[in-house]
Batch of 2 targets.
Target 1
Amino acid sequence: MQSTVAGPCWGRPAIVPKSTSFTHKYIKKDASGTVTWESGDNRSYTTGSGTGYSVSDIWK
C-alpha cells in the first residue's frame, strides 16, 4: 500500500506473536537495485497483548 502524506508513505503487514520483542531497519532501493540503509541503530519494539499492533515511523 502506498499513499502520499507529506511525502511517500508505505505500509506492510507482518505477523508477529503477542508480547514479542523485535528489531528492524528500513532500506531504500532505487531502480538500479542500489540499497541505502537508514542511519542510526535498529528500531526495536515489543508487541502488546492485544490482537493488533501498529507503528508509525519516519526515515532516519
Target 2
Amino acid sequence: MVVEQLSDEETDRIFQALADSTRRDIIRQSMLREQSVSDLAKHYAMSFAAVQKHVAVLERASLVRKERRGREQIVHSNPEALRRASRLLDAYEDLWRGRAARIDELLSD
C-alpha cells in the first residue's frame, strides 16, 4: 500500500483529531471562513479555554493553523491535511476491497 508516507504518529494525530465532533465542526467552520478563536468559541456551549484546546489538537495534527493578528489568533483550515487523510482512507478501502474480492474467488472455487 503506497500512500504519501505518513508516520504512524502523524496518522494517529490526524485521526484522533478527527474523532471528535467539535473538532470536525471547527474544521468546517474554518473552511467556511477564517475566524478568530474567540469567534469560534461563540459556536459552542463550552469555555473559551476548551475551544482553544480543541484548536491546539487540530493544529498539532496540521489540520488547521493559527495566525496572530494583533491580539487575535486567526484559525485557517489546511485542506491538504484533509486530502492526505482521505488518500489514506482510500488506500485502506482498496486494500479491504481486494481482500474481499480474493475471499469471493476462494469461495466460488
